[in-house]
Amino acid sequence: MSMKVLVYRKCSTCMKALKWLDEHNISYEERAIKEENPTYEELKEWYSKSGLPLKKFFNTSGMIYKEMGLKDKLKDMSEDEQLKLLATDGMLVKRPLVIGDDFVLTGFKEKEWIEAMHV
């Protein structure tokens, strides 16, 4: 299984998630979400693969999200506009973001990870 994990190394949840993967001997390719932010094409593909609502891809507790007042703005934006916005800054994206062969996970919820990765 080839898995990509997009993380921000200053984020404690991301570090916890990477530690969890290591403890379960799950191999992954790490990518810095801030330096190498997801592109529009990637986000579009991951979103359609995830089956999740697009809101789940936003880092709703992040500073940029709050500064831009996105809580109120998102509902008036099309999915395409939201994806383009997400692609402008990795810090807008919920992390860790995990892309597996047949699943996409946003954030670190151990129960979801266990189910998706069949641990």
From TrEMBL:
Query: Secretion signal: which residues?
Result: none
Q: Which CDD domains match?
A: ArsC_like
Matches recorded under InterPro entries: Arsenate_reductase-like, Thioredoxin-like_sf, Tscrpt_reg_Spx/MgsR
**Entry similarity comment:** Belongs to the ArsC family.
Spell out the PANTHER family in the cross-references. ARSENATE REDUCTASE, PROTEIN YFFB
UniProt protein name: Arsenate reductase family protein
Give the source species.
Blautia difficilis
